[in-house]
TrEMBL record:
GO molecular function: oxidoreductase activity
Domain of life (superkingdom): Bacteria
The UniProt record lists the keyword Oxidoreductase: yes
Protein name per UniProt: SDR family oxidoreductase
Species annotation: Hymenobacter taeanensis
Organism placement in taxonomy: Bacteria, Pseudomonadati, Bacteroidota, Cytophagia, Cytophagales
SUPFAM superfamilies named in the record: NAD(P)-binding Rossmann-fold domains (SSF51735)
Amino acid sequence: MNEQTALITGASSGIGFELARCFARDDYRVVLVARHLDELQEAARLLHQEFMGVDILLLPFDLSLPDAAAQLHAETTQRGLRIDALVNDAGFGETGYFTDTDLETELRMIQVNAASLVHLTKLYLRNMMERNEGRILQVGSVASFAPSPCQAVYAATKAFVLSFAEAVQHELKQQKSAVTMTILCPPPTDTNFFRTAHAENTRAAAHTASARAVAEEGYDALMEGASRSLPTLGAKINFVSSLLLPDSMLATLMNTQLHATAR
């Protein structure tokens, strides 16, 4: 039996749920974190249905609150849980011209997508460094590679995640640590993201990757200790384009995907 524990944020649906499924398949104890207990309970039901005997702990926390990350870490510490794998998947977007979108929504987005991710990484990475073992998966996006008009704040948070993860990866190598950090940069994926971001009718939403396929590629990269996972050909093309094209052209291309109505 695998006695390791994985903590996954944003675990009630989408890529987060599929990542939890990967860990459950490999006999990890899974700690599922999301805002709503009822959605976590449904996710746990589905996992128990597929993987009989999997050990699941549900922790409803709203990571848009500034103290939630510290409270989550304190809860797992109090329960005596050693987190062997941390997956920072929680995140959401908002679509529209920056002058028109809601500021409070965007400030919550920055808190979830960036600030809570940093906070959780700081706390659990320190625990892992003490043991000199552990894995962290940071979920970025192909939006990490380009400015994205009509999702300006979301793309900026994902660019932050990419820069942050790459810098810490370098630090871990300098420290000769056995702890690994992987960044997963999915393409547009079939999840609740587009509905939550009010982007259901964009071109990006019309052509999406499978959440399960994205999660499995990211999971394999995490287990291999890879620095980055670019699941699907689409993600790889986005990355190569970011190296070859100027930001002004990338912004135009992203605007086409996010502002035009899908047919």
